[in-house]
Transposase (Microtetraspora fusca), 88 residues
Amino acid sequence: MSWRRFKILLRHLPADSATARAVGHSGWTTSDYLISDLWQALTGKPHPARPQAKASRPVMTSRRKSHRAAALRRAAARRQAIAAGDLT
């Protein structure tokens, strides 16, 4: 079995399988989320067992912000040099 095949098999395991839970999935299926949305619509409160959403991005530190700003400045300078014909 190739690594690609193995990765595909892992990705498409049922959400409530032990392996899926071990690699970090909540164990909730699409139906579970829909039912919890109905619960919230009827009661006005979120379902108590609904998994909390993970943060989408880590918080940027000041060092990381400065590195990002420097990279954006270099990219802008490079675009200007290309537009002026200095670089190809």
Observations:
- The chain has two domains: 1-45, 60-88.
